[in-house]
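A student in our group prepared the protein record below, which I am reviewing. Here is the record exactly as it was handed to me.
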Amino acid sequence: MPVETDKPDSPQVLRTKAQLKSAFLQLRRKKSIAQINIHEITALAQINRTSFYRYYFDVYDLQQDVLDDFIAQFQQILSAIFQKLLTQGNISMQEMPLQFLLEHQDILQILLHDTDSIAHLKQEQKIFVKQFLQIPQDDARADYALEFLISGQLGIISYWLQHQDTLSLENLFVLIKEMLLSQGPLAILLKLAPESLRENLRANG
């Protein structure tokens, strides 16, 4: 990514990037990334091309920044959900990221077709859960359980975004919750954790 001459967290930089990202997503709803050019983005954002190149090499660089922002937020939400499920064995609808995903469904659809970003998201979650449960990072059984768990949830959410009229948000939450709390991947992961940790989680649950 080009070197930014302004402070990366200054209000002006954040505002300019937000305008470019918003313009990009508006265009992305209508066409593929290959059909989008920088002129369209800057014209829609009402920002000159020089400002675009101050922060991004090209349209693909801008899309990656959009995905990186989304993944960072999504990672925090997923980590909190896994921690709550593993310690308390339950979760409320308000704590599920369904509304967040609904509000960011344009970005989610891009993410689901970006294999590198999906792989990064999964890897970060695998590391977090294994660290939290004190499971060795090279435990292949945990990798398989987490792959099944994360891929399954992303698949269900992706399917729902394309068929929202067939199931309410509330019923989707009930369905996902039942799957998460059944004797499936989470139960396997807990069995892989040290007995002392499992006892501690039960005591604090």
Summary: The chain has a mean pLDDT of 87. The first helix runs from residue 11 to 28. The CA atoms of residues 133 and 193 lie 5 Å apart. The two ends are 45 Å apart (CA to CA).
